[in-house]
Amino acid sequence: MSLSGIFPIDKWEFTTQSVLNTLSEEDYNFLISRQGAQKYQKGEIIFKEGVVPSGIYFIHQGKIKKYKVDRNGREQIIYVANKGELIGYHAILAEERSPDSAAALEDCLISFIPKEDFLTILDRSPLFMRRLLKSLSHEFSVLANSISVISQRTASERLAISLIILREKFKGDGSGEKDVILNISRMDLAGMAGIAQENVIRLLKEFKEEGVLETDGRKIWIKDIKRLVKKSNYGFGNP
């Protein structure tokens, strides 16, 4: 079932895929196609917060979690990037160190794009630059929304929202609406919802008993998206 009309998913998602669509075939080949691709295993770190970036990354296959680590070593996942997206360009544009870390959420195939190549395309394609800045603006709104939820919502609502967002992410794997499987560890789900792992396990059990979802190991199936949206307390008409 589509979220159209029941949940404002655009407040929670941003993507750079449409940005890349603005490139000419020549510029796309220069930026993406001529780069080699490297395999990353689930959990492998792509870049760390605080490093000076030497380039950006394009995801050919898999999903990447972008996260920050607090003083107690706990991860807060701030975004999940899908195949077809660019990551790591914020620090290049700002001429700063990386503001967050990135790691493979599952096995991935990723291309590294040198900083010089990225800046060359920015200079060569004003439309690409404008779309990228528009994407950054929307991304800021999404992250501000996420911060608001972490501070104001209950654990149950946060988990429900995280599951709805992940359902949209995993729909991109070619599965049908009724067959979307969320393959994610409870630790990563806790990092995304901003709650303790034991609370994730307890709440998933409650959601399962209420017929909202089913689980098998780390896999999760959403059975009743309408009830999940109701649990999020964030459908249309809710702040």
From TrEMBL:
Span of domain HTH crp-type: 153-226
Range of residues in the leader sequence: none
Keyword Ribonucleoprotein: no
UniProt-listed PROSITE patterns: CNMP_BINDING_3, HTH_CRP_2
Residue ranges annotated for the Cyclic nucleotide-binding domain, each copy included: 19-139
A GO CC term assigned to this protein in UniProt: cytosol
Pfam families recorded: cNMP_binding, HTH_Crp_2
Key words, A-Z: DNA-binding, Transcription, Transcription regulation
Keyword Transferase: no
Listed InterPro entries: cNMP-bd_dom, cNMP-bd_dom_sf, Env_Response_Regulators, HTH_CRP, RmlC-like_jellyroll, WH-like_DNA-bd_sf, WH_DNA-bd_sf
Entry's Gene Ontology molecular function annotations: DNA binding; DNA-binding transcription factor activity
Name of the protein: Crp/Fnr family transcriptional regulator
Species annotation: Mucilaginibacter rubeus
